[in-house]
Amino acid sequence: MSYVLSNGKPLLSQKATNDGHAENSPYFDGWKAYDSDPFHPTQNPSGVIQMGLAEHQLCFNLVQKWLENNPEASICTKEGVDKFRDIAIFQDYHGLPEFDRDLCWRTGVRLLPVVCHSSNNFKVTRKALEEAYAKAVEANITVKGLLITNPSNPLGTILDRDTLREAMSFINEKNIHLVCDEIYAATVFRQPDFISIAEIIEEDQEYNRDLVHIIYSLSKDMGFPGFRVGIVYSYNDAVVECGRKMSSFGLVSSQTQNLIASMLSDDQFIEKFLLESAGRLATRHKDFTDGLRQVGIKCLNSNAGLFLWMDLKGFLRESTVEAETALWRVIINDVKLNVSPGSSFHCSEPGWFRICIANMNEETMKVALARIQKFVQRNGDKLNRKEKCWQSDLRLRLSFRRMDDVLRSPCSMSPHSPIPQSPLVRART
Hints:
Elements (H helix, E strand, L loop, with lengths): L13 H4 L8 H11 L12 E2 L9 H10 L11 H9 L9 H7 L20 H13 L6 E5 L11 H14 L2 E5 L15 H7 L8 E6 L12 E5 L2 H10 L7 H11 L2 H27 L4 E2 L7 E5 L9 H15 L1 E2 L1 E2 L10 E5 L5 H17 L1 H28 L22
Parallel strand pairs: 1-8, 2-3, 3-4
Antiparallel strand pairs: 4-5, 6-7, 7-10, 9-10
Helix pairs in contact: 3-4, 11-13
Pathway: Alkene biosynthesis; ethylene biosynthesis via S-adenosyl-L-methionine; ethylene from S-adenosyl-L-methionine: step 1/2
Catalytic activity: S-adenosyl-L-methionine = 1-aminocyclopropane-1-carboxylate + S-methyl-5'-thioadenosine + H(+)
Pfam families: Aminotran_1_2
């Protein structure tokens, strides 16, 4: 495709033609592989199974039942209720939310990862925050804010109260903004409970509330990405006013607003939905992790989200992003599963993969799990050899370390939360 006029001058702006949309990344390559060969239990049983889409499809029967019982909430007819699911979950992957693209492509903003490690379950520490900030200052980069997800995508873990307090202390000291993405708030399926940053603000009046902004959506908790309903909750009036003005370019349709307001106002339904959703997510999580454990595959211990953070480091030929990408291509092309490599989430340790488990029915889940198990069993010898080599190398390194120790020894030398009682935003005014 040409972006240059016959006289050699650019036809489109650099912003329009740059590669910031990241469609050449593994994340989008996986979607393209799925689009060209989608799995179907009868029509294409050897096709690619979609496990790169964090979507909640486990409770649609509850929503459909509510629609049948509340026809006045929608202009849709009862005969069209089966079409509701396809409309509600529709999303073109070219426009899927992704931090690098959403924040950088049109604005020119730079994202600087806060490096976390598996040794402490990828916990966000004050040390990690300070190191990331110092690195930015050293590179003459002006830091404007800190962006966190809670519960975490892709980890499926929550940020505890101490971590949230550290984040608040950090942004207050640096006088930078905190944007807290709480889009997975109602996907917590076991203890510990979710804690909103709004609760932390209420505990300490010394925090500068003008720096804190919460974003939320019904795309994950309710499974309505096709409705494009997003929420910005800020204590900063200027930010709210700016958001109100900008929203005119992407208003939610009046039909959607009417339907969602009616549904969220039904306290009995919401309570039932949240309870049932947590139970189904817990069951799916257990079934899949148990199946992986049978063939020796571990996942990060998690209690939220629509995905697992799967550890496949043992299958890498070396600990590099290139080796991770090579393994990912095997999983896409041979195992026929669209999963997301850790590098697409800026993970500092190659070999971690995000697999989405709530966007399929139980039969498809069993097929996906069987494919992973077969792959592991087929490559088990490689995994065992790598583990033995690693253990041998570890013993050797420890042996040299003990010798070094001998040689170096002294003898030898919140009520205002947008989600007050449930993580779902109430439709009250």
